[in-house]
Amino acid sequence: MYETILYEVSEGVAVLTLNRPDKFNAFTEKMNKEITDALKQAQKDAQVRCIVLTGAGRAFNAGQDLGDVAGGEVDFGGFLRDRYNPMILQFQKTEKPIIAAVNGVAAGAGMSVALACDIRLASDKASFVNAFVGIGLVPDSGGCYFLPRIVGMGKALELAMTGEKVSAAEALRIGLVNQVYPADSFMEDAMAYARKLASLPTRAIGLIKRTMYKGLEMNLEETLQYEAFAQEAAGSTEDHKEGVAAFMEKRAPRFTGR
Ligand code: T3D
């Protein structure tokens, strides 16, 4: 169904694999559009309660395929507005948890996409390169939005201005990733994490995601109001009733995502 990505759903988890391993999974226009479409599909599918984004082969993603843009005049504004910006916005619009399972290097827009995910898990062979400066560009695809919010302004400016490679261990230390797992068992460990998230109250998690990201843009009063609105929605779910019932009955809850 897709040409540049693989898309599979099992046990409540949609796995979206960037699949151009000989090019380090670099982005093409088709890949940008297929990712956007796959995220929309995962949002619509009630079976899907968590999404994992990973890369085939040695890399996670090396950013824009430079072979496609080398030597020509690039309309950078149009390029981003048509291809990358809708893709990044779709990560936010998808009200389900999205995990970047960073199996290898994440560079340029590949790093930005990992930052646009809600959770980052890294193989101990993974690395991050804010490669834009190396080709005289500015971090795009949300890199200037997410990076300072995740690691703080000082570190974000350092990574963006120097383009230095960050190892998985350093990424964990600075809060760029949530967990690091051994390369040999990486996808098993990442999938176990994803299945755990998929077993939790999916609608509450979607509302947590929306409210937290909105909170970045709002003052305290507006955030309190938005929390009240989100709580009304979460409080009307079957999973809320199940969570309270399970607590009262001293048993483990069985959440269904409804
Ligand atoms: O017009 C615009 O550019 C606007 C768009 C902006 C969005 C962006 O993403 S800008 C940033 C674009 N990306 C980069 O600048 C990263 C370029 N790649 C690298 O710096 C390095 O390849 C890596 C740090 C990612 C990995 O280094 P290393 O030493 O582990 O691997 P390698 O040998 O450099 O690359 C392996 C193969 O992947 C190689 O192919 P080959 O020689 O074995 O046939 C290499 O050419 C290919 N590859 C890596 N990155 C890209 C790529 N091919 C096309 N496009 C790439 N971005």
From TrEMBL:
InterPro entries according to UniProt: ClpP/crotonase-like_dom_sf (IPR029045), Enoyl-CoA_hyd/isom_CS (IPR018376), Enoyl-CoA_hydra/iso (IPR001753), Enoyl-CoA_hydra_C (IPR014748)
Domain of life: Bacteria
Signal peptide positions (record): none
Membrane-spanning residues: none
Family: Belongs to the enoyl-CoA hydratase/isomerase family.
PANTHER family hit by this protein: EG:BACN32G11.4 PROTEIN, ENOYL-COA HYDRATASE
Protein name, as recorded: Enoyl-CoA hydratase/isomerase family protein
